[in-house]
Amino acid sequence: MSGSELESLEKVLESHLPEPELREVKRLLFGKRKLDFPACAVDAASERDFELKAYRFEAAQEQLRPPRRIRVGLIQHRIVLPTDAPVLDQVNAMHNRIGEMVEVAAMCGVNVVCFQETWMPFAFCTREKEPWTEFAESAEEGNTTRFQLAKKYNMVVISPILERDELHNTLWNTAVVISNSGNVLGKSRKNHIPRIGDFNESTYYMEGDTGHKVFQTQFGKIAVNICYGRHHPLNWFMYSLNGAEIIFNPSATVGALEPMWPIEARNAAIANHCFTCAINRVGTEHFKSEFTSGDGQKHHDFGLFYGSSYVAAPDGNRTPGLSRTSDGLLVVEMDLNLNRQISDKWSFKMTGRYAEYAEELAKAIRHDFKPNI
Amino acid sequence: MSGSELESLEKVLESHLPEPELREVKRLLFGKRKLDFPACAVDAASERDFELKAYRFEAAQEQLRPPRRIRVGLIQHRIVLPTDAPVLDQVNAMHNRIGEMVEVAAMCGVNVVCFQETWMPFAFCTREKEPWTEFAESAEEGNTTRFQLAKKYNMVVISPILERDELHNTLWNTAVVISNSGNVLGKSRKNHIPRIGDFNESTYYMEGDTGHKVFQTQFGKIAVNICYGRHHPLNWFMYSLNGAEIIFNPSATVGALEPMWPIEARNAAIANHCFTCAINRVGTEHFKSEFTSGDGQKHHDFGLFYGSSYVAAPDGNRTPGLSRTSDGLLVVEMDLNLNRQISDKWSFKMTGRYAEYAEELAKAIRHDFKPNI
């Protein structure tokens, strides 16, 4: 094992397992995904010091619908400057880094790119308001979202930010969706806010009020389920009921939750007959002031963001994850026709009995609910 | 690879990966489960030619509640006689087999045992009514459920059967729950019925009408989500809202669904802060008459039931699976206090916003629903 952190599960397996065991283990872990497509722009990625991986999910040829093949790009990265550098320097450094990664995504023909949760150190553990709230920006006019990448590269950009809502004088954790024309299509706020250990983000912002918006883009109908919302099956489900073909899950997650990471977004793809894209940041972020956590200890960081971004398909197949330790771009070509094909085949929506659940849930939420024991 | 089928994922990893990679890969795949507890009754299992595995999930010591440690047993097995043997012989042979496996479970101190879905060949693919409907029995008075194991071994028995409801002149796919006193506690019918390829079980029985019943036993509150219901997150969720501490998922599943098997029950344990037990049958079942399937082909079997029964805990940890190819008993000791501890820590229920979902779902099920696009 090189260094103290495993680079990725797949690399370990590939180094040690003989064929045909490796093939069978990969099938059990990832399903029968199609072969990698000829990797694009490998040199550019390598020069810029990030990992580039590319996979493809195919669908059956239909008679009446042409294939709807699109390419998504998932970007994971560490913060660029130390967390005590001037705010504007930090922001600019991150913009430069994302800029050079998105350029490579463009070389790979990516149509929809999604970044990790918030363009800033994930400093909510500190409980400090300054300087972190200075990273907040308007969804419609902010620095990050004005980012001209979308138009330049004809790419839908999903940009998760810390949003400052001047009108209501509040902050939100928000994903801004920018169409490939460069216009803001809209925004989707984080629906579920963690209150766990280092992560009581409600010190800064509350549960989102934008519901389960789905964005019609030139490349399909997309939705954004931010971070902690991945633990809530109803959240994925409701995006899907509103028509989402791809649900992005920009996240910031560490430590004990790592064994759950491969499970939840993938389960959502299966249960909802859609694609899901799970994106985590990378690296350990150090904060100058010591802070306390739910474990009774004092910290200057909250551990390794373990990367491992991946895409899951409606048939249960998934890509391997990006590295646990380094910046990376995951390019995935998918034929969106697969969603309906799998839905027609497995019929989880048809057999879902939602009318019964709507009734049961309405009863179950009442304070005087009597469980069926 | 010995033979044409991999015995289990874990065995391959253990044969080829060096420490410390193995330790880290196991953490990523299964989480940090506690060590095996001293295996009981290994000789008895080996004499009777089935695999015996045992694991433990611990919880933190609390000040006001004593630990609530119980042991569950999951039994997976192939059918014993060929499917064209006389029905009564098949039934008796299966009773004998289960009898000798449950005896070993008793030696291991199991408090709650659950068998796989239906005491019969999984013949619904044939579309033949005879002789398969002869396997059906009353939930309250049937042969299987009269099985005296529960009282003999002071064990709660979950016995999934093909139920004949004489009163309504219908068949159901039903789990009978027998208390450790030997009395029938009640029954739970399969809530979601597949209509996929070989598996249109609605030729035989329809969606269950027993809702999301939870059974209070001496060893905790348990529920049974039968087979295809594992694809429906709302189904798990509603058992949990009704108080289930352990949800059993007796199943019969093959082929392309194998990569999904480790995902769905485990996701349900995570999302609902409870234990889940996934049980699949083993082996390939051959039927005399050729039948057609959703793939346009003719068959005499529908492939390998891949076993791999496992238990998942609310903290996202899971046991490795039983073998893919042989009969087995999985014994798991769990401290049920872990459910509330994890719920208090991660708070998915508290942050679930169920009132909003009840409203949204009620709207979404209407035929004239306008999605939020």
TrEMBL record, chains A, B:
CN hydrolase domain: residues covered: 70-336
GO molecular function: beta-ureidopropionase activity
EC numbers for this chain: 3.5.1.6
Record-linked PROSITE patterns: CN_HYDROLASE
Catalysis performed (reactions): 3-(carbamoylamino)propanoate + H2O + 2 H(+) = beta-alanine + NH4(+) + CO2; 3-(carbamoylamino)-2-methylpropanoate + H2O + 2 H(+) = (R)-3-amino-2-methylpropanoate + NH4(+) + CO2
InterPro entries linked to this entry: Aliph_Amidase/BUP (IPR050345), C-N_Hydrolase (IPR003010), C-N_Hydrolase_sf (IPR036526)
Listed GO biological process terms: beta-alanine biosynthetic process via 3-ureidopropionate
Enzyme class, UniProt record, top EC level: hydrolase
Pathway: Amino-acid biosynthesis; beta-alanine biosynthesis
Keywords: Hydrolase
Pfam families assigned to the protein according to its UniProt record, in alphabetical order: CN_hydrolase (PF00795)
Protein family according to the UniProt entry: Belongs to the carbon-nitrogen hydrolase superfamily. BUP family.
Protein name according to UniProt: Beta-ureidopropionase
Organism annotation: Mola mola
